[in-house]
User: Fold this.
Amino acid sequence: MDPLTDLLNRRGIEEHAKALISEAKRHNTNLFLALIDLDYFKNINDTYGHSTGDEVLRHFAAIAKDEFRQEDSIGRFGGEEFLVFIKGVDKEEGMNILSRFRERISKTSIASEKNESVQFTCSIGATSLSEHDKELDDLVRRADKALYMIKENGRNQLLFLR
Assistant:
């Protein structure tokens, strides 16, 4: 577990992903993946300090735990990157879930150490398991490509790539 966010850490989410991918392939069920990046997180740390950045990460994680279902899997993949697996949903339903989550994040703010309001947003690259995918890296590569395209187009968006 990641001690800051109380979400799965990178190793935990990678191990969990193997089981989720195997289960989805075995039962021929849908598996939706989101790679979520907090926008301009370095600027938050540089402007307000690392303790405020940590609070942003904790607040983000609390919203994720509230928004996603218990059967979904959420993990901290890197510094300000998160992976979310949503089981048993098609593209439309997965995008609706992620859109609501992104909207809620964009309307959120926390107080900095100096009691300044700090707003933050996230960008979400999404994909779903295909019959050609062999491992987590296949999914992450597509989601990361979507995330890269979002960052080139202004951030605080959601994009699905197949």
Notes: Residues 10-160 form a domain with the Alpha-Beta Plaits fold (CATH 3.30.70.270). The chain has one domain: 10-160. Residues 79 and 156 are 18 Å apart (CA to CA).
